Amino acid sequence: MTSSECRMDAASVSAIDDERLDWRFRSVPSSLWGLTIGEAARLRPDLFNSGFLAPMVVLDSRALDHNLRTMSDWCAGHGLRLAPHGKTTMAPQLFARQVEAGAWGLTCATAGHLRIYRAFGVSRIVFANQLVDPAALRWLATELERDAGFEFTCWVDSVRAVELMTEALRDATRPVDVLVELGADGGRTGVRDEAGALAIADAVRKSPALRLAGTGGYEGALAHDATARSRDTVAAYLRRLHALTIALADSFETEQVIVTAGGSAYFDQIAEELTTGWPAELPVVPVLRSGAYLTHDDGFYRRISPLGAHPRITGTPLLRSALRAWAEVTSKPSSELALLTLGKRDISFDEGLPEPRSYQRSGVTAELSGHTVTKVNDQHTFLALPPDSPLEVGDRVCFGLSHPCTVFDKWPLIPLVDGENVTGFVRTYF
Amino acid sequence: MTSSECRMDAASVSAIDDERLDWRFRSVPSSLWGLTIGEAARLRPDLFNSGFLAPMVVLDSRALDHNLRTMSDWCAGHGLRLAPHGKTTMAPQLFARQVEAGAWGLTCATAGHLRIYRAFGVSRIVFANQLVDPAALRWLATELERDAGFEFTCWVDSVRAVELMTEALRDATRPVDVLVELGADGGRTGVRDEAGALAIADAVRKSPALRLAGTGGYEGALAHDATARSRDTVAAYLRRLHALTIALADSFETEQVIVTAGGSAYFDQIAEELTTGWPAELPVVPVLRSGAYLTHDDGFYRRISPLGAHPRITGTPLLRSALRAWAEVTSKPSSELALLTLGKRDISFDEGLPEPRSYQRSGVTAELSGHTVTKVNDQHTFLALPPDSPLEVGDRVCFGLSHPCTVFDKWPLIPLVDGENVTGFVRTYF
User: Fold this and answer.
1) Which one of B55, B341, B378 has the shortest CB-CB distance to A87?
2) Tens digits of per-residue pLDDT, B48-76?
3) Is the pTM here over 0.90, yes or no?
4) How far A138 CA lies from chain B's nearest CA (Å)?
5) Where are the alpha helices (DSSP H) in A43-103?
6) How far, in Å, CA of A114 to CA of A203, rounded?
7) Can you name the CATH fold of B105-289?
8) Which CATH number fits domain B10-59+319-427: 3.40.718.10, 3.40.50.300, 2.40.50.140, 2.40.37.20?
9) What chain B residue is nearest to A405 in terms of C-alpha separation?
10) Hey, are the CB atoms on A430 and B410 less than 8 Å from each other?
């Protein structure tokens, strides 16, 4: 598992374009109903004059292209294979773009997501979690048997998980590759100490159903900002992962050894800590699993990304925010407050509230400053207005968002825009 | 608008059963792929031994039936018409159950939702918001023209909204009925004072596109608990709404006058304040818009509902919580912490975290106490374990949830269960 290119089933991906638009897609103009997604995209409808309903979330295609290329180039230049975390978007069309841009594989979060990846033929999947559900494991075994080109690896962080997997996979014809997941106190999953890790590795080696293929973990569960202290915590964790991999050097059962970490917050440190210092005889493949880099954001990742507002990587273009929401002012009950058609069911609110950027009235867009979102309800946004606010009922406001994962999961279909033209639609499956 | 029964298009609703199951529905067993929703339901698969993947959210069909009947009976007995807020579930099959149970209409939140209601032929819709989007208004006008039996009313809370609606509806053949929305300082939408309300009513009367059909508002934006102080705030607001309706008595342009309020937190007070004290000549139809009553919950609504854990209504059976989540323990990195396959993308977290209730291992279910969810990530739940916790990796844990609205929007298909048997599937559209 590591040599060939990652593949997807191009026919399944392009079949998305054949789905017909209708009332299920809540921002799509009713004038496009009955057309396929592909037909609608070829019309290049105008975002503001074609009847798109607010609220809507759109993806800036130029920012997306830029981020794809930037991250692909950066990983290639820093000795990292990229297995983008697909959970962020759950959009096979974007997976395909990532694979085209050179992704080594795709990272997957859940058993349900795994079936979606396989429906689109993703050939190399890093399942960055434990997988102990017997039904999911049996289904995985049939997929591995059906498709000799399918490469899969998941994590184990307990001997009990090894036992449960071995039991569920007792009839499997191909072994399942697993990585020992290292965690840390105060973190999330992952075995906490080296002794535990060695015991797990030992259990894996004894299991007829599993092969030990490397190590992994998630530094993003240990810190939540880019302070020196947080970065030290991350570095210490990555060094433990490095040391554990070396301690397990004689235990790996695969030709190459995967060592994987990395969300979108500390990938500079993944390159620093996991691409060097390996014994010559240990065939390590360092794999980065960032997902949010693809759209970046105007909040959490803007603050924390090494290619964000406070860059820690130099000589590489910064990531650009590709996600925006548009909503309408429907009420201005006082001079200090406007209510907009945007709610918890439309946008993320878990890592910061939407940030107003501009507004549009009668086809003219203008910057907006001094306005602050103070609260979101299920279907409303509360916007605090400055004394000189130009906003009136009927205006459309553009928002930057924070945390792309909890935006994508609210939209089955997201227009791709180039300026004011819709150039495509991205279908998500949640 | 008020006399006939609310109707839906039965053929469209039952056509939901013809949709084929596949990988798009993330908890559905792969063994059911290829079957239609209706065929799968007729198999009555066992929830625990048929390969349903965790995480999964299920609806208790007996609790649902009970809540449907309870609220329907209570409204009928207290002089209220019920227009359940469909935004909670966005599930046409449940809308149909509510209509069968005697709902007078359905309440709707957004322009996108409105198109979904109409795709299922909902004949009477209270749009409990302003609607100023020109494309949405033009589409509404075509629906009103196409279907003489379609009754619609929405809110206005500014003269500017009246002007925008009038402009967008200049070619409409049927007038759009509107209610003046009354708000309150510190609240959400709604005109803040009587003078403003009278000016809006005057503008509506002068608009060729609109008819003044009543008054409305949402007391739930003014309070968030059931303390005496909050209930006083709600009562004061409802009395202002009552007084405003009387002040506008000569302005209404419809045969009957809708007065509407009510989420699922203070419906006892809606009955008290809005069903009595009307002048004999004012043909008031008091309309309650509760939505969350249908599933109730194990958090926010359990605390605040008049038929919840601290009931303020006597002589009526209490509502029952109908939503549950099941997730798997995949990691227990220390004796104090377990991680489960349940995250922000699976369940609500905005009005309280999931509450563990029981667990299952090898087909045996047992109660679980002393366990507390401390955090949820995108795809993980952190469960703090007591010293004697029986939980091990591989166990499934059942959770009660808080705030149904932000649960439904994460699941396109939700199994209906009777005990451990799946008896149907509820399809949602978000």
Assistant:
1) B378
2) 999 999 999 999 999 999 999 999 999 99
3) yes
4) 10
5) 61-77, 92-100
6) 25
7) TIM Barrel (3.20.20)
8) 2.40.37.20
9) B378
10) yes
